[in-house]
Model the fold of this input.
Amino acid sequence: MSLKSRGWEILDYDSVAFSKQLKPGCFTAYTLRGDYWYTQPDSPIITNLLLKEINSESAKITLKIDDFNPTQEFQQAGIVLLDKNRNKEHNIRITVNSCSSGPRFHQAIQIVKRENGTAYETPTFIIWSWDTPAPPDSSFISPIWIQIQCEKNKFHFYYHFGEEYASFRAVNTIDFNFEPAFVAIGAFRGIRNSKRDLNNSESIPAFFDYLKVEPMPE
Done:
């Protein structure tokens, strides 16, 4: 059964990268250069972003990432929520991310709200840290589940890793005048690095196992 027949669309399609599906039962996305958090003269793009309509602004959205090991700056994979116009300037997301502070590198949960063209990042929620240049074994955080619980103009973010039925851990809650109409999943690495040069971090795979959209309990 095709992605289209199951209600999926592909935004900013790259046939070469999309064809490199490496793991049966999973969708493989790659951290190509791109982001919806950008500044001029760059343009917003996330290549091979999988997009699906959701029927309610109150929903519980859960993504299982079967394996992903970001070790270089701004490599990330996760969920992006878009409005009915698919507005790249007005959206909200949660990703598993790689970032740094001083001599330490981190694998973290990042939440970014982009409101009418301005990006607001909540404090990064660090999962695991290490001293450069030695990265951790990806088995430490894989598989990992991330979740958004959407209520009217309020978004709750959670994660857990390891076992399927482990308890979710709260990351943050964001108030945002936003009506989600589409859920998207993808991987990217930002357009610029922290020095404002083009980001040349490696393009690595993220293996998405499943996305589940459920109504919020009454």
Notes: The CA atoms of residues 123 and 218 lie 30 Å apart. The mean pLDDT is 91. The two ends are 33 Å apart (CA to CA).
